[in-house]
Amino acid sequence: MSSLKVVAAVLALVAAGAARPDHGAGAGGHDNGAATHTGYGAPPPPPPATYGAPPPTSYGQPEPENAPPKYEFNWEVKDQYSGNDFGQQESRDGYNTQGSYYVLLPDGRIQKVTYTVTKDGGYLATVVFEGEIKQEHTGYGDTTPPAQTYGPPTTPPATYGLPTTPPATYGPPTTPPSTYGPPTPPPTTYGQPAAPGHA
After folding, report:
1. Which residues of the chain have pLDDT under 70?
2. Of 1, 72, 97, 104, which residue is least crowded by CB atoms under 10 Å?
């Protein structure tokens, strides 16, 4: 009799456990062990950043080239109409540079500068003048002062005189015509006297 009570109590406990709402059954009536969530939790964390700050910009001198500089040039201007005559030439190979330039001066001479530049010696120049100084030269215009084109001021003629008297616009007074005459006697308004006794 007591064993039946124990079995009945165990079955009641199993039935009560199966009826609990937090233990759902899976497909086919079997419990799959997954808990049922009925609320909303915190949002998932954002994904990690996949970018970063741009690399710093590097400012500075450009990288030196391996090949040493090497060049050569020359130019000149010679215009007989204006009198301009000047030019330059230069050549460089690495640290060594040499060249010259010249210009025709207003006095007719040519000034010429020859220069060299080296790594250790720096800039060295030599100045020479070629030709003779000329008193007259062309291309710069006449240097004589212009003739005087003004004189003493002239007095303008007078445009005024004595004041003129305007003509008289009045004369002797005129007597107005008389508008009256001798008085006229009033008309007589009486007649013959009446005879006595006929009052």
Report:
1. 1-4, 6-7, 14-39, 61-65, 136-146, 188-199
2. 1
